[in-house]
Amino acid sequence: REIVMGQNRYIIDSVAHLSGAQRDTLLARAGRAVDSAAKAPGWQGFFLNYDPKPTAARVRARVLILQGETDRQVPPSEAERLGAAFREGVSPSVTVRMFPTTNHLFVEDSSGAFADAAGRLRYPMLPSLRVRKDVLGAIAEWLAKNL
Asked: 83, 52 in Cβ contact below 8 A?
């Protein structure tokens, strides 16, 4: 729920550019919608109520966590938070790798913004939608070292 509400705040603040009472009203409405979706059966309810910490604590395999620093869908702080959850458990090794100017799709993106100033989606405007070579290289290196 925290991440979804963070996404809502980001959209309201950076895409809709709302402030004051309008912002507060829209955030409250978004909160109610998230709470309602969390009560629904199915994947949305599961997703909104899922806490990965208990599962992470039981993982006995080595773990690789990759994160783009300009990811606006899952904040970069979540990578280290998840890494800490694995480290508190029984995993023998946890690697967290951050990639600058890299968005949620692991493509080059200096801002990671959802939309431009005119409200147009930015992903289709990016120069490339190919996963960055350094990300693929980091995966290959980790696999070669850990398998």
From this structure: no
Contacts of residues 29-37 at CB distance under 8 Å and 24 or more positions apart, as own/partner, are: 30/5, 31/5, 34/1, 34/4, 34/5, 34/8
Token pair recorded at residue 29: 């409405």
H or E, element range at 78:
helix 77-87
Prediction pTM value: 0.88
The half-sphere exposure of 61 on its side-chain side, counting CA atoms within 13 A, is 7
Residue 48's nearest CA partner among 65, 28, 31 is: 31
**If 0-12 CB within 10 Å is exposed, 13-18 middle and 19+ buried, where does residue 9 land?**
middle
Distance from chain centroid for Cα 141: 23
Write the pLDDT tens digit of every residue in 73-83. 999 999 999 99
